[in-house]
Amino acid sequence: MKTSLPSQTGDDAASSPNGSAWEVGxxxxxxxxxxxxxxxxxxxxxxxxxxxxxxxxxxxxFAQLLALCQFLPGPASSQLGFSIGLLxxxxxxxxxxxxxxxxxxxxxxxxxxxxxxxLGGPWGQAVVHxxxxxxxxxxxxxxxxxxxxxxxxxPRAFIAVAxxxxxxxxxxxxxxxxxxxxxxxxxxxxxxTVVPRHGKILAPGxxxxxxxxxxxxxxxxxATAIVVGPSLPPLGxxxxxxxxxxxxxxxxxHVVLPLLKEAIVEPGWIxxxxxxxxxxxxxxxxxxxxALSAYLGARLGGGHGGALGAAVSLMALFLxxxxxxxxxLPFWRTLAAQDQAARMLAGVNAxxxxxxxxxxxxxxxxSGIRDGxxxxxxxxxxxxxVAARWSPVVAVAWCVGASLLxxxx
Length: 409
Description:
The chain is mainly alpha-helical. The protein has helices at about 20-35, 40-55, 60-70, 75-115, 120-150, 155-170, 175-190, 210-225, 235-250, 255-265, 270-280, 290-300, 305-330, 330-335, 340-370, 370-385, 390-409. α1 packs across α4 (about 75-115), α4 (about 75-115) runs parallel beside α12 (about 290-300) and α5 (about 120-150) packs across α16 (about 370-385). It is globular, with a radius of gyration of 21 Å. Residues about 1-15 have low confidence and may be disordered.
């Protein structure tokens, strides 16, 4: 049944949600169990479910909500789902959407982490290596797709190449932040053809004061994670590292790979092989890529992993993006109309392409491709994804199966 859309009559007006957390949870649980293909595919699932089928949003509202989630750092598809639930059924609807969409993949990756101790023999190592080859194909697909969409002209291609070059010289966390900031600074200068997309007004069921408070909480937690986090006990330090990553990653999805590596692998909490095996396993499950944090948290060393480590890491990575999108919603009408904001976003997105391209080489390619046969296996997986447009699950099955066959013969 078609429902009425939110309306707004003034800068501080707010609409009342007209749905229930239960219906939101049921809708998103179905998507959490079936949404394979990564964040770009998730957007298509959401549009089909909530614009075409359920009619909770019309095209203009969906486009505005999507633009907001792409503008902010964090996991764009999860932020979009949380926002749809928030607008539909208030805070309980937003929480229901997040939990239902995220829990299936988080539980599956936690189970993989719990069983990974049995992958120490030759056959287990072959499975792990196959997952690394999946990562090569998936990240290459992500670079190609993002380059087509986010670097369609020479100025943005220049930003991407410059970003990749800087990361190749120095891949520290500060260099990555400098690259993103540089993209934002160059956007208004180089991306002058970019104009904001105007659409209907989005109206959450709360006012700007609440939004400002949520943004304040985000900022306080980020400052705490940066200043105090490294000196906290191990689990608190890891939570701070995950929070910093979630607060500073633009583009979501595969772009989180280089920042998570810097935050988790470099301090020695997880070794690089374990990290890439988890990343490959994340391609085989539905739901958001950020659910990888459940695997990483479960595998934290020093006795700080397990279920508690998984839960803390999962929430720490997702929380900043959810706080930001909820805090920004009441202000989005004003922000979205600014030419400079749209051009800054274009510059940031171009820089993100360069960031992911650098990650494709190191650590993904360097750790996964050992010889010509590995290259052929990864190339075939890439062809299945890009040319044949098959599910990532097929690519996982191919890479793992081919790796096991190499071990057998």
